[in-house]
Structures
1.
Amino acid sequence: MLGACAVWPLVTSAVHGGRPEGVLLAVLALAAGFAAGRITGVLLPVAAPCAGALAGLVLTVTVRLGPGPEITPQLGHAGATAGVLTLSAGAACCAAWATSVPAQRVALWLLAAGVTAAAALLDSTTGAVTCCAVLVCSLAAGRLHHRGPALAASAVAAVLVTGLIWAVAGNALPGGLAAPLTDRLTPHRVDLWRDALGMVRRQSALGVGPGRFGELSTTAAQPTLSDGKPHSALLQTAAEQGVVGLLLLSAVFCWVLFALWRSQRPTPVVLTAGATLTALAAIAAIGNALSFTTVSVGAGLLAGLATARPLAEGPAAHGAPSACGRDLQRGDRPAG
């Protein structure tokens, strides 16, 4: 699936021109992070997510996550900061559920709370909200025994966010709801979304070509501080790669949820990762988070940690039920 996500931008750029390097780099970063997560999740199931959470927190506090001074805070590094902090909080919660030592679990919960506080201190409103949502979902995950309904709820939440973004771009919301949302999102961002939706309507099959939004958007061409992006992963993919590119992006997210459902990791770890990645999807839908390699690597790393499986399993004792049989006896789904 990631291979298809890499090939399709090459096809669209061959037809309409463009620069597919950014998409290829994002796919490579996601694949590399996922592979690293699968490996370290087996070898260091607690230390690896803990280290990832600390690395994300330190990176956000000490390094300005922005591509350059030409990007405004509202449309530049703010989405990346919220994305990295959300992934850090999710990784800390996953590590807390992965350990069986009470003292370590308390320390990791405090780390997750510290990441949330850091988001508030850095004036990242989106990051603070998503970190709190991840913490609440993670605490609730400890009381759930069936992961299917919770992961289905994550998929529904992603669909609702997608529909809302599309409705705002298409000016389909009633005035009483559209005006506050436009003020919160900023009129400049909404104008970028509408330009992207116009490109989708004109070139729905192949899009206008990777990296060409800034050349064709009238809003991005205005004499304002802009980076030539619509600041929505959904609308950017649909505008530059067409409906096929958008379907591939959606398929990757659905595949991650399916892989989490089949994962052999404990259910609280799986549901925490699912909630974190859903929150990141919401951030990417209204911002430019996925344009930053750090966010793509972090998303792949968390998905890999939550889907890691043992390299080998010892033979079951004679007469003892298999792992699949135990799951079926509990009414759960079979192990992946």
2.
Amino acid sequence: MTMNAPLIDRHGRAIRYLRVSVTDRCDLRCRYCMAEKMTFLPRSALLSLEELALITERFIARGVTKVRLTGGEPLVRRDAMDLVRRLGRSVGHGLDELTMTTNATRLADHAGSLFAAGVRRINVSLDSLDPGTFRHITRHGDLEQVLAGIAAGRAAGLAIKINAVALKGLNDHDLGDMLRWCVVQEHDLTLIETMPVGAIDEDRADRFLPLTQVLADLGKQFDLRRDDRSTGGPARYWRVGDSTTRLGLISPLTGNFCAGCNRVRLTTEGMLYTCLGHDDSVDLKAAIRSGGLNAVDAAIDAAMASKPLSHDFAIAPGSAPAHARHMSVTGG
């Protein structure tokens, strides 16, 4: 291996995008993501802030141009903003973009600091604008608190994209209203198919809503035109009429996007997963603690050599999830 050699997987795909799970903890319990009673990792199992930063900086040195901080809810980790500020120093110096996915419950307290650190765009997970539906999906979430966080983010200068998981029988009747609200607020909206990841308290097949159906329904309400925009992720985009809003669709089951995969995921305990749908991983925590950054580079190279071509997600009534690992562990 050559120092700072670019990250190319065994299928010839350049890896430019790293998602970093800052914590597996969250202050909500969304039904499609977590069981109501969760057991989280002990703090002693987590990478330290310094280790998270060092490993992420190695990825940047080797060609990653986009880093997304995620969780769980990243802002529940006490030192999360210290990590944001450190990684923000790489923006413009190898890193094109530092961004975050958040549920916005704590965004009002951190929006200004995120912008000051170099973050310019964030994703906010928000599955309904109806307070009762929102509380049901999240089990105890306060919609007004989230909307206040979004408003604070916008006031701080952050571009905000709303992420909503499409859920049959829960928010399918809300998605048109969500898109109208995003048009008024000048937010982009990305809809996501529920994925068979982690054991939850319900059968995901009961809630699976194919985005082909959603797109057909929205197309009757809005003037939707394909848009070639790419943000480095898996979404396909449509422009909504003459507005500034773009509608994105992430459809791992009805529209597999694996052929152009450019991303890997680092968990808060230091495991590097090259595919959300597979359990193959390398232990970067063990590597950095036993052999420093040279060992981290060797482990990353091993991961590149084993990255699968695609996931094999499927949802059927009564079927087990693709793996027991929750999305909050891998990074949502």
3.
Amino acid sequence: MRLADSHCHLNYKGLGEQQPDILARARASGVVAMLNIATREREWDEVLATAEREPDVWATVGIHPHEADEHPHIDTARLVDRARHPRVVGIGETGLDYYYDHSDRARQQASFRAHIAASRETGLPLIVHTRDAEEDTARILADEMGKGAYPGVIHCFTASGDFADKAMELGFYISISGIVTFKNARDLQDTAARLPLERLLIETDAPFLAPVPHRGKTGEPAFVADTCRFLAQLRGEDPEELAEATRANFHELFAKTLV
């Protein structure tokens, strides 16, 4: 299989201190593309350095909704400026998280809109995190789409099937993580089974959410192969074909990876 891990955090604790080994295991498992996601400003240089050093790794710039209160100075202009780097291929992750509410909701929404504006201005895909915030996420995405189109993906999808439909109507891709392999993820499995192949991505969100049979371990990009095999069985598809399709989707969405 030739796979793309559309969302991982290679510089996080658990991966960063053994990054060469992590990357070697990923490549041995067939991973040929990895998107290293930024979540706070102090990570940007380190995330970019990994992408500069590793030809199969790309980077994003963004502020996670958990960090919105700590980054009031990160506006559209600052995101656009850093996104000029040739190895930056996406904006985010950004979005809304009302489950933890680590940042004020109004501040999360303002940050979200700033990221969307940067995506629109640069043409780079928006990477969206949403948890317990479906209604506001859908409303903001649709409202901002009315101001001008922008590409994007709902990462680590765990929302409702109805939200998936709304996101795809706006042109978004849906990225499935190792959560789909969990026994208690029946609703997600039902949604993942019916998603159009041309809108599907696979990710690890490493070092989080290691799929079965690795639950309890530190997640890593190599495990995207396990998620792919599970998802292929769930959907009645050949794992090799699913890997190829999701990898092609990754490069189509994150078109700067082909430059």
4.
Amino acid sequence: MCTAATPQTTPPAQPSALAPTAAPAASPAPTPAARPAPDWRIRFGALSLIWGFSFLLIKVGTEGYAPFQVTLGRLLSGTAVLAVAMAVRRERLPRGARTWAHLAVAAFFLNALPFSLFAHAELTIPSTLAGICNATSPLWGMALSLVALSEDRPTRRRVAGLGLGFLGVLTVLGAWQGFSGLDFGGTAMALLASLSYPIGWIYVRRTLAGNDSSTLALTGGQLFLGTVQLALVTPLFTSAPDGFPPLPTLAVVALGALGTGLAVLMQYGLVEEVGPTTAQMVTYLIPVIATAAGVVVLGERLSWNTPVGALVVLAGAALTQSRARSSRASGARTGAGARTGTGAGAGATDHP
């Protein structure tokens, strides 16, 4: 997820009591009322569903395409959605070679690398496990921020959250059983993908916070660069697909257009309306929805330790995010951190 700065609005000027009153004139033509946006709770729920189902869509996409192809298609679709949004809002791409250089690094850690790792991981692990691994991202972020961000100070509650989250990971993986039946390669790639997000968030926070470009422009440029990176890498490791199977193709397009494009725009609106603290709570619903989708739709097997461990991970992640409100506000405009999210820095994850 990523967050956008809440625009400062100026209240309309009220007529002064001392100002002379003008003579009655013909009333102006009424302006059409803007269509109200759906209640934020509805959009919050929709965003949770979109990002929660992303792991299912990745799994379906890899049934017809190579992992790099899934990621490339995802980034193409997501970039197209943001390009349309920028055109409608008449946004311009960022300027300056330094900004684009920082965006290229952000695109690698927040898009190209984690998207590719999750796609490769789901070749050998269930989508439910991938979704739960994604929930460890706040744990990685807390550990890294203590080293990389001087303003983030350790507290007993946050350290306890880190330890609790680690116990949750061990529960999910079945450590007492000697990790039997676990694919180490796929699980390691999913955990590395989750680690990649906070690395990218910290980089964005240190290099792009306060940039003059809008959040949408920064994120659009970031996704474009991520698409270029995958377009250069994919032909080196994969051959052209023999065809375009309908279901995997629809899954990849939906993954990009909804999970990487539309979801980013939805989160912008949530951050502006309810703030980054509430908007980032979507992070804690993603593994729940991902698990339910994998079990119900894909028929993936679920043992007791998976949901129990996931709840422990989420509890630990929630503790690591507890901090003073003033420190939450400091990260409110880290625009290039799209997960897209998820986002979801101060807003998070993104997503998968």
